[in-house]
Design a protein that fits this description.
about 230 residues, Rossmann fold, 5-stranded parallel β-sheet
């Protein structure tokens, strides 16, 4: 049964990759190691992933990962997102699963690990969040974390969402806590531990374009791979 589920997830991952891929700049390569991007809420990690995807021709996995897992759990993405961001203690988790006939946090974690491993085998991908740096097994995987001072993240989030800074502060702190709890509960790791990453970037110091250049340089150095880069105007 485990092999069957793994195969189903791998097929779904490949389907998403083919559906959303154009002509890859690095199509000549069989499999290039993935990049994982951990990020503080509002630190522009997702935007960095999109920029890297464009420049490297890599598939970016963010919300699509939730969609795949939702299909396997038989739930909608909103429910899966709640598991994605929040931890649930084991007793509560078991009761919740039996009472509601829905995927529990444990099932979500199992499918998440299988999906990330499938993406890792596929290669040429960028995985945003979800503790992927703790799941990937290839030593050539480049693990990046994007941070920014909380005052800058609050100001940006308030401006972009028509909120007061007080309202934005509550949301930013809540999301940071949820992400830290997810990694702590599921992987027993402190998401803020700098040594868990190959590269730590402050988005208040560097633009998204400059962060992409730094990541690409680090990727080349760590993997030793020669890769094609799409030029962008800065």
């Amino acid at each position: 049964m485990a092999k069957r589920v793994s195969k189903m997830i791998e097929e779904q991952v490949q389907f998403w990759a083919l559906k959303n891929s154009g002509a890859s700049l690095n199509a000549g390569h069989d499999k290039l190691p993935v990049i994982t991007i951990s990020r503080e809420f509002g630190a522009k990690g997702a935007a960095l992933a999109e920029m890297l995807g464009e420049r490297l021709g890599f598939k970016v996995w963010d919300k699509e990962l939730l969609d795949i897992i939702s299909k396997k759990l038989g739930t909608n993405q909103d429910f899966t997102s709640s598991l994605d961001e929040n931890r649930r203690n084991m007793v509560e988790d078991a009761i919740f699963g039996f009472m509601n006939h829905k995927g529990t946090n444990l099932n979500y974690l199992i499918y998440l690990v299988r999906a990330v491993h499938a993406i890792e085998r596929l290669g040429n991908s960028i995985i945003v969040g979800r503790g992927a740096n703790y799941i990937c097994q290839n030593p050539d995987t480049l693990n990046v974390r994007v941070v920014a001072p909380i005052k800058d993240r609050i100001a940006d989030y308030a401006a972009n969402n028509d909120l007061t800074k007080e309202q934005a502060l509550i949301i930013v702190k809540q999301k940071d806590t949820e992400r830290a709890n997810f990694s702590g509960y599921n992987f027993n790791r402190d998401i803020t531990n700098a040594s868990d990453y190959d590269l730590l970037l402050n988005s208040s110091v560097f633009s998204i374009e400059h962060m992409a250049e730094l990541v690409i340089a680090a990727y080349k150095q760590k993997t030793g791979k020669s890769i094609r880069i799409a030029e962008v105007s800065i």
